[in-house]
Write a structure and sequence with these properties.
This is Integrase catalytic domain-containing protein. The protein has nine helices and five strands; from the N terminus they run ααβββαβααβαααα. By secondary structure, the chain is an alpha/beta fold.
């Protein structure tokens, strides 16, 4: 055809028709992989206190012994979405009352969070309903004073545990640590609580960035630096030579400069590693309504 006719924009015209042909697209089209979205706002609460945005979940159960009888206990994890810090509690049951008491202990020691992320567990839903009812029963003046201190619950969609991957991964680390420490032994409740606190300290001591083997490089930041101003709860405070007012006689300025340095390292070292995209390097159009698609599933077992 090209020997006899000069077709204007022939190649693009043929490609356009091929894109409209459903049968051709079915055999030739490659899967459209959407680009990874930006990090949610809960992961970027820069300058906010730890556990401002918190994810939580229960894990267990674990068997403990009280005298001659045995009972079950569950673990409750609170995971800071920004600093990656972890707080662990023990609950005696999976009801709303046990969770509310554990939440009160957490808020008394770590501060009340602004928002909570969790799955659709009955204990979480029941606790949110009870807190909402208690707030509604308060007087108008008290409601105005406590309006800014309300905790917002964000529930994941049903049957979607991958929405809580941030804290589900920590649950796996905690279970592995408890398995190594306890084996299959049934221990008293005090021992289980002590082990959980030790595991919490270990998780909060792990580096958030790349741990270099060069002795001249600075150590990567850890959640304990943002929680208590030092790398390890068992070690003395970290001695740093800051740039401004680190040697001030006013202790509050000294502490503030140290916290600012830790946050600066957190922003420059850890946050950029979260947004690295090794797969999605080119822009592709996202799927929209009324688009015809072919769903590609996993291949089934061969018979």
């Amino acid at each position: 055809m090209r020997r006899q006719y000069w077709i204007l924009k022939g190649r693009s015209s043929i490609k356009s028709e091929l894109r409209k042909c459903t049968e051709c697209q079915r055999w030739r089209k490659k899967p459209e992989i959407p680009i990874m979205a930006d990090l949610p706002e809960a992961r970027l609460r820069i300058g906010k206190p730890a556990f401002h945005s918190t994810g939580m979940d229960c894990f267990g159960p674990y068997t403990i012994k009280i005298g001659r009888r045995q009972e079950k206990r569950w673990g409750l994890i609170f995971k800071c979405m920004t600093t990656r810090a972890v707080h662990l509690e023990i609950v005696a049951s999976m009801d709303a009352d046990a969770f509310l008491m554990a939440f009160r202990r957490f808020a008394a020691r770590r501060g009340s969070p602004k928002e909570l992320f969790c799955d659709c567990g009955t204990n979480f839903i029941g606790a949110e309903r009870e807190l909402r009812e208690c707030f509604r029963d308060m007087s108008g003046e008290l409601q105005e004073k406590l309006a800014e201190r309300q905790v917002k619950f964000n529930f994941n969609p049903p049957s979607a545990p991958h929405f809580g991957g941030t804290w589900e991964r920590e649950v796996k680390s905690i279970k592995n640590a408890l398995k190594c420490c306890l084996k299959e032994r049934v221990v008293p409740e005090a021992v289980l609580q002590t082990v959980l606190v030790e595991v919490e300290g270990l998780i909060n001591s792990k580096p958030l960035g790349y741990a270099s083997s060069d002795i001249a490089d600075t150590d990567p930041i850890t959640p304990n630096m943002l929680l208590m101003g030092r790398r390890d709860p068992m070690s003395p405070p970290v001695v740093i030579n800051p740039k401004e007012e680190i040697r001030s006689r006013k202790q509050w300025k000294h502490c503030q400069v140290i916290v600012d340095i830790f946050w600066r390292k957190f922003v420059t070292e850890y946050l950029p590693s979260l947004q690295v995209r090794s797969k999605w390097v080119t822009d592709t159009p996202n799927l929209e309504r009324q688009n015809k698609v072919l769903v590609i599933g996993q291949p089934g077992p061969k018979r």
